């Protein structure tokens, strides 16, 4: 289905909140997202405020700084030889492949943020190796 603000908020409610609770418990964190219409909708902004979750201010068109792109790259590489026959098999394959991503891989990407930022500054906003 198309991801509108309501669908996105449902995903946040049922998947992000439990994952954040498991990862961070009562510790503070800042949520990162891009500026997709569902993400930047006023209703979504209100949802984050109502749940007390700060959102990182994000510049438009900044894939060089977004580690989620690297995670999707990992998923794509792991799925290179998968041949799902329909949408349901594709979804199941994506879910199973996503589940193989380790917390250590995520932490390495998070730890790479200072290097990413420095590379973008050095490149004056032009593309980087990230």
From TrEMBL:
State the InterPro entries in the record: RNaseH_sf, Tc1-like_DDE_dom
Which residues does the UniProt record annotate as the domain Tc1-like transposase DDE?
3-91
Give the taxonomic lineage as stored in the record. Answer: Eukaryota, Metazoa, Chordata, Craniata, Vertebrata
Q: What is any Pfam family matched here?
A: DDE_3
Q: Which organism is it from?
A: Cirrhinus mrigala (Mrigala)
Q: What's the protein name? A: Tc1-like transposase DDE domain-containing protein
Q: PANTHER family given for it?
A: HTH PSQ-TYPE DOMAIN-CONTAINING PROTEIN (PTHR47326:SF1), TRANSPOSABLE ELEMENT TC3 TRANSPOSASE-LIKE PROTEIN (PTHR47326)
